[in-house]
Amino acid sequence: MRPVEDVRLFFALWPDDDVRLQIVENLRKLDLDRNKNRLVSNNNLHLTLHFVGNVSITKMKCLDWQARQVIAEKFDLSLDYSGYFKKPKVLWLGCRTVPRALIDLQQNLGREIAECEYTPEERPYSPHVTVARKIYHAPEPVEFAPISWQVDRFVMVESISDVAGVRYEVVKSYSFQ
After folding, report:
1. Does an H or E element contain 143, and which?
2. What is the reported pTM?
3. Fewer CB near the last or first residue (10 Å), C or N of the chain?
4. Three-state secondary structure call for residue 114
5. Which residues does residue 173 pair with via DSSP β-bridges, in sequence order?
6. Please, which residues bridge with residue 13 across strands?
């Protein structure tokens, strides 16, 4: 059992049920060996903005306060192609054209939460929704209808490990203006 004072956090875009359903429907078009690959649970689908890691409750409160300072505008995101990261062996869905509002949100949030002794990653931001893990061979690209996602908030999520695996719970939600 994890200590109550220690939480594993990240900030993300959290899809609504319609977007989740569209993602799952498109996964059926991919030639994946369901016995060898591990699909991400529908309830865990998200697009990470910043992975924070293990923090104290005090630091979590700081992160929440700083996240509330972020000013962002609503935007449309189109998940319109699949990709594969070889080293972590994951399949993902992404957008050919990344909205400027998404880049601004990710950068502004990073600047704000840096006030809580968080160091944003230095590598370029690559927005994607991980949909499957343990993919040992890159699947052939499959055409699918773009998934339209109207983004009007971001969330703070806690990653909880238990006997059934990892589950994600939204801790806080931050609506755009």
Report:
1. none
2. 0.91
3. N
4. helix
5. 155
6. 47
The answer to whether the CB of 48 falls within 8 A of the CB of 90 is: no
Beta strand pairing call for 6-13 and 47-56: antiparallel
Tokens 């609506």, located at residue: 175
User: Tens digit of pLDDT for each residue in 22-42?
Assistant: 998 887 777 665 546 678 889
CA atoms within 13 A on the CB side of 24: 13
Q: What is the pLDDT of residues 103-114, one digit of tens each?
A: 999 999 999 999
Q: Taking the chain, what is the end-to-end CA distance rounded to the nearest angstrom?
A: 39
Determine the Cα–Cα distance for residues 84 and 30; give it in Å rounded to an integer: 12
C-alpha 95/C-alpha 102 separation (Å) is 11
Residue 63: closest CA among 74, 47, 49, 78: 49
